UniProtKB/TrEMBL annotation:
Its EC number is 3.4.-.-. PANTHER family: LD30995P, SECERNIN. This is Dipeptidase. Belongs to the peptidase C69 family. It catalyses: an L-aminoacyl-L-amino acid + H2O = 2 an L-alpha-amino acid.
Length: 557
């Protein structure tokens, strides 16, 4: 009778975000327009980063609902019951964060002014996304639905940036509540210009915006007047900046959030992005533009690689400082900030991070029927070491290995993709510079295969679709399910291979994945790789003569 949005997990990392505390930074989105992409598709990427988010592929079938039906709303972060809203007569199928019309919605939380959080609201940012996906046929309709819902029922969360896209357009919607005494939210939505890309990462990025251009910019009627009432702004309307009024920058917002956006832009237009290095390092207040034009068109594989970024090749390169250790690990365990002798320091916060629940690259293609045109390239755990598996918009169910309800955050399961990928990545963190090379081989092999097969899969599905759309959906379901199973199986074997190869800090020699034996059939002598010279030098500087080899017996005076 009613579809209940219930999330039995907690994303406490994001709950109640106010400002930019070091423990409240999660999620990265990239948006690509048709004329900026290599094949003419619209793309959106998303990393759902939280230390307690279980990575799984959500699925809602299309459904009809009786007149008067109500929908229970539970907060995505905590599972807390928030209230009920009216159900619509018909809801659309949703695979992950993409619906049957290829509409995709993703988010990053920016928090903003804490006094604007409305704890009486019914719709939090998570339910807002997934309810809207079940109701919207286009990005513009999604914006209308989202803003209308919070106006009617109240907005429970803190400030949020949403990526909203369909096969033709990509939009950024930024929204924040108006406090417990004012129902609804203030918001601005900007369309990404054709030929450009954009990105956001837990900091509001819409500054000034056109006031009379409904084709490219939409906003709430009180977005400026409310800021005036609250004392956030007192200038001319044309100079109003949403981000400066509702989410003022601080150093943490620049270094932990805007730095990720800067790194995205460097991948597509290095020379232009490098002009903003002083901003990222806190030496300048000149903000980056909301939109960047790439020097060449980008592919879905390019976006996947962007999601694997750790600032490599920049002054923030996480493999270069002492925190990387002897094996160049581009990860830092939380907290993000720490003190030595009362002085506060930070760890970098890169796009790829260890605590990701799931990530995706959504590809929306307007020249194909919707069930075939929409592909959610979906991965679980750390985006850097995941495999993006194709999940078509038209599949009839989520693959077992990735399905909601298969496993949870507190029980390891060999059947669940989330746990298999976490097992491998957590092994790799201890010997990263070595193990990542083996991971890349299998990751690339699988993603190369998916890319090469895609034209044939699209063509076959299109032929079947003309004959019978249900046949096409069945074919796509079998394909996505089989690739999911193959991927998890290969990752299990990869983990076993890494365990043997790097047992006890040694390296057991192998060739083409087969471990070598000596002439008597026993294991070949292992390699003792030790550490690099730079690390040994640091050890000596710290230990002094304590570890120095000396003659014995000692010389007599």
């Amino acid at each position: 009778m009613m579809k209940v949005l219930y999330w039995g997990f907690i994303i406490s990392l994001i709950t109640g975000i106010t400002g930019h505390s070091s423990e409240a930074l999660a999620c990265t989105n990239v948006l690509v327009t048709k004329n900026a992409s290599a094949d003419g598709s619209v793309m959106v990427s998303y990393a759902a980063d939280s230390h307690v988010l279980y990575g799984e592929l959500y699925f809602w079938p299309a459904q009809d609902h009786p007149s008067g039906a109500m929908l229970d709303i539970y907060e995505w972060d905590t599972g807390k019951y928030l209230g009920q809203i009216k159900q619509v007569p018909h809801t659309y199928q949703v695979v992950g964060n993409m619906n049957e019309y290829q509409v995709t919605i993703a988010e990053t939380t920016f928090g903003g002014r804490s006094e604007l959080r409305d704890t009486t609201g019914i719709l939090d940012y998570g339910s807002l996304m997934y309810v809207t996906l079940q109701r919207a046929k286009s990005a513009r309709e999604a914006i209308k639905i989202m803003t209308s819902l919070v106006e009617e029922y109240g907005y429970y969360s803190s400030g949020e940036s949403f990526s909203i896209a369909d096969p033709n357009e990509a939009w950024i919607l930024e929204m924040i509540g108006k406090g417990p005494n004012n129902k609804g939210a203030v918001w601005v939505a900007r369309k990404v210009p054709e030929g450009y890309i954009s990105a956001h990462a837990n900091q509001a990025r819409i500054t000034t915006f056109p006031l009379n251009d409904e084709e490219n910019c939409l906003y709430s009627h009180d977005v400026i007047s409310f800021a005036r009432e609250q004392g956030y702004f007192n200038g001319k309307n044309k100079d109003f900046s949403f981000a400066d009024a509702y989410a003022p920058l601080d150093y943490g917002a620049v270094r932990f959030c805007e730095a990720r956006v800067w790194s995205v832009f460097r991948h597509v237009n290095e020379s232009e992005a490098d002009q903003y290095e002083d901003f990222i390092m806190g030496r300048s207040t000149e903000r980056m533009p909301l939109f960047f034009k790439p020097t060449k068109k980008v592919s879905a594989r390019d976006i996947m690689n962007i999601m694997r970024d750790h600032f490599e090749g920049t002054p923030l390169d996480m493999t270069k400082d002492a925190g990387a250790g002897p094996f160049k690990v581009p990860y830092r365990w939380r907290p993000l900030t720490w003190k030595v002798d009362s002085v506060e320091y930070l760890n970098e916060r890169a796009i790829a991070t260890q605590q990701t629940g799931f990530s995706f690259v959504a590809q929306m293609r307007n020249w194909l029927p919707n069930p075939i045109g929409g592909i959610l390239w979906f991965g679980v755990d750390d985006a850097n070491s995941t495999v993006y598996v194709p999940m078509y918009a038209g599949i009839n169910s989520a693959p077992y290995e990735y399905a909601e309800g298969n496993g949870n955050m507190l029980e390891f399961s060999w059947d669940a993709a989330f746990w298999v990928f976490n097992w491998v990545s957590n092994m790799a963190y201890s010997r990263y510079s070595y193990m990542i090379e083996d991971i890349r081989k299998v990751q690339t092999e699988l993603e190369d295969k998916f890319e090469k097969m895609q034209p044939a899969i699209d063509q076959t599905a299109s032929t079947l679709y003309k004959q019978d759309p249900a046949l096409a959906r069945e074919f796509l379901t079998e394909y996505s399910h089989s690739q999911a199973s193959i991927t998890v199986n290969k990752w299990q074997k990869l983990g076993q291979f890494l365990m043997v190869k790097y047992l006890d800090g040694n390296i057991h020699p192998e060739k083409d994945g087969v471990f070598l034996k000596n002439e008597y059939g026993n294991p070949h002598d292992p390699i003792f790789p030790g550490y690099d010279k730079e690390y040994y030098r640091k050890v000596v500087e710290d230990a002094g003569d304590k570890l120095k080899m000396k003659p014995f017996p000692p010389a007599q005076d």
